[in-house]
Amino acid sequence: MRIDPSAVSARDMYQLLISLVTPRPIAWVSSISADGVTNLAPFSFFNAVTANPPTVLFSVANTRDGRKKDTLLNVEAVPEFVVNLCSYDTREVMNDTSAELDYGVSEFNTFGLTPVPSETILPPRVAESKVQLECVVTQIVRVGEGSLAGNVVFGTVQRIHANDDIFDSTGAVDPRKLDTIGRLGGSGYTRTTDLFFLPRPTRTGR
Q1: CA 108, CA 110: separation in Å to the nearest integer?
Q2: β-pair partners for 53
Q3: Helical ranges in the chain per DSSP H
Q4: Around 192, how many Cα atoms within 13 Å sit in the side-chain half-sphere?
Q5: In 3-state terms, the chain is what percent helix, strand and coil (to 5)?
Q6: Best CA proximity match to 151, nearest among 163, 159, 143, 162
Q7: Residue 106 in contact with residue 38, Cβ under 8 Å?
Q8: pLDDT tens digits, 29-86
Q9: Which tens digit of pLDDT belongs to each residue from 101-136?
Q10: Given CA atoms 61, 65, 68, 69 in this order, what sign does their dihedral have?
Q11: Dist CA 89 CA 106 (whole Å)
């Protein structure tokens, strides 16, 4: 099968991409409005960028009618956010926070989550998350216009908070204990507990 993106609607292309580019880690992003109202929403267009300086990105798609989502409005007004990582035990409430609430209604209050003050920025962290990254926005890159166009938010990590029990006896993160989940197409998710390991090659070529 060959697919010409120019012949596919934005909605169908979105469904195709999220079904092909898998699994995708989930950034459970907390932000705050200029009026001090907190917001929390999951984004699966998310990844690390570089370690120097430590930087992550997530992309906020416009709504189907081309409007900016609450998270984007917030980080434009207050350029800070927290990436709260999603483990299997937070899967249900994370999914709940993807509901479309009116702007100015806090998901923390609506879904009974526990806000924890950040150390370096205004948006709170999610106590129920095993790892939280406090970030300051460095740039927002617009990709496309209108329905489902993207807004890529880059943030420099100012502080990392991690539960002690996700580390093994050597001080390394144990992926089984972190137990993060990833996004697939449709309503599908995967869990990072079925592991295999491949050692890095010691040299290139044969």
Answers
A1: 6
A2: none
A3: 10-20, 70-77, 91-96, 107-111, 175-178
A4: 21
A5: 20, 35, 45
A6: 143
A7: yes
A8: 999 999 999 999 999 999 999 999 999 999 999 998 889 999 999 999 999 999 999 9
A9: 999 999 999 999 999 999 999 999 999 999 999 999
A10: negative
A11: 21
Report the b/e string of 113-129 with b at 16+ CB within 10 A: bebbebeebbbbbbebb
Give the C-alpha separation, 146 to 66, whole Å. Answer: 4
Return the amino acid letter for 64: R
pLDDT at 206 over 60: no
Nearest to 17 by CA among 136, 130, 183, 138: 183
Instruction: Give me the phi and psi of 44, to 5 degrees please.
Output: -100, 0
Global pTM exceeds 0.85: yes
Give, in order, the Cα–Cα distances in Å from 63 to each of 44, 72, 145, 150, 158. Answer: 15, 11, 11, 10, 30
Within 10 Å of residue 78's Cβ, how many Cβ atoms?
Answer: 18
Q: Concatenate the DSSP letters of all residues of 111-148 into one string.
A: HT--EE--SSSSSPEETTSSEEEEEEEEEEEEES-STT
Distances (CA, A) of 138 to 25, 34, 112: 21, 18, 31
